Amino acid sequence: MDRKNFIKTSVLAISGFYFLQSEFMYAAERKNETKQYHDAPIIIIGSGYGGAVSALRLCEAGKKVVLLEMGLNWEKAKIPFSNLLKPGKSSAWLKNKSIAPFMNIFSLTPFTGTLDRLDFDHIKIWLGRGVGGGSLVNGGMAVTPKESYFKEIFPDLDADKFYSHYFPLVREELKVNVIDELFLKDCPYYKFTRVGEQEAHKAGFKTIRVPNVYDFTYMEKEFRNEVPRSALNTEVIYGNNHGKNSLDKTYLKKAVETGNLEILDLHQVQTIELNDDKSYTLHVQQIDTSGSLVAEKVFTCKKLILSAGTMGTLQLLLKSSALSNFPVHENVGKNWGNNGNFMTGRNWVKPLSGGTGAKQSTIPVGGIDNWDDPEHPFFTEIAPLPMGMDVATALYLLINRVDKKGEVTYHKDSQSLALHWDESNTVKMRENARYFIRKMNKANGGTRSHFLFNNGFGADICYHPLGGCVLGEATDEYGKLKGHENLYVLDGSLIPGTIGVNPFVTITAIAEYCIENLIRKDEFA
Ligand code: FAE
Hints:
This is Cholesterol oxidase. Belongs to the GMC oxidoreductase family. By secondary structure, the protein is an alpha+beta fold. The protein has one domain: 2-Layer Sandwich (Cholesterol Oxidase, domain 2), CATH 3.30.410. The chain contains 14 helices and 21 strands. The strands form five sheets. Strands 1, 2, 6, 7, 8, 9 and 21 form a seven-stranded mixed sheet that branches. Helix 4 packs parallel to helix 11, helix 4 runs parallel beside helix 14 (504-520) and helix 7 crosses helix 14. The longest helix is centred in the C-terminal third of the chain and has 18 residues, at 427-444. Flavin-N7 protonated-adenine dinucleotide binds next to helix 4, strand 4, strand 7, helix 12 and helix 14.
């Protein structure tokens, strides 16, 4: 049956599937007997920052939207998130061992957890899975990029409009706030920040306070034992049970409240096809929490928004192109970067005076800003290392410029993404890390952290994959994929591999800018 015929005859399609809960449909799901077919005007793939912004603004404009998310809806499932010291169900995406950046000594029963890791030859990329995407697992650092760098990276965007409108808007929507200095000054859980800042000053570096989406009023109550603990109970990269304003509590919550959004979790899109009438067909697998197939589904839609995150969006485009001749522009996959991520650390940090603290909040609030140094420009997060005991170790995630970009392609034979990225891409980042650690150790004592990383340098650790579908290169000025009439990319892949700070504020602002203009241009009429 061809698509048009099917839509004519399908009961599901005719009645609209959004609110349909027929026994027939669920029986088919359980027995996994036949494919189910669904039609929707607008489909968004992925519920991270780009997907959540798109969903809210379209729903507010009165559009019915279906959002397909491969991860679990944790709020609906009512399964608690695990903490760093006791990894459980939420700690990894279908793995039998934990996948944190270090100390992976924990065996797991595979479950559709919140944290995933993609392993390439020279780099490992961590990602969030679940309704809320990366907001479930990230450290919540809500950093607005430096205006000069934003202008350098996006010369065609109206920076004044971004700094006067889009950035303030997203900080408000994401509920960004700043820790109280008095609380920070005395709280034992922030000794690592105080030590980090004192040491940085002694070494001649400038520090900055970093805003966050974690509710610091809640954290103060945690500290006083008035509410259940989350950041002060080593919860973060496997999800926070309290305190963190992840997207399910901000953009997505508002979008659901419009009554126009349906979120289908545990729905993984496999490939996309372009139909003759310029609509799209999506081949989707619904899975259960052990990763087993529940149903094969086929969705058709007039308008498609790809918000599957940098790696997810590239996977869908390049795989569909390799397997079913889906048309993709030649710039798709190009101009990819790790946002200059380079992890490093120091051991023997103040070992005689309590080190960096036995108890640590998981929420970073301090950073070292060396961006204006022409020889060694970098920003680094003073990161927590909550191991349940004092390890006298300081951890840093450096964010550098990306002098040499990488490229993502698809290997048809192995049916997997290939990332053209090796040590040559991180030469300058390593140099900056070496300079930083030497200067810190010279002023304060300590050694490069051989305990945590190979030779003390984690060149292969990436939390911020960006680019590959760059705004204005692979897409038009508002994210419409070149060569397509009804396909839009709205996520981190629009940013050309670097933004100089932690990226989600920028991803959210770019998504606001694009969707506002796409709606204004009547693209979703
Ligand atoms: P993202 O949030 O990754 O969402 C994509 C969604 O699409 C996910 O929910 C996927 O499960 C889903 N998906 C993918 N493929 C499919 C498919 N085929 N079918 C259905 N669904 C699919 O995209 N950034 C900051 O600014 N501050 C921080 O403090 C920070 N800390 C971080 C800490 C960690 C451990 C990690 C991993 C990241 C951190 N980041 C941080 C990065 C930030 O979370 C990331 O840049 C954004 O989440 C990317 O947003 P996107 O909208 O691009």
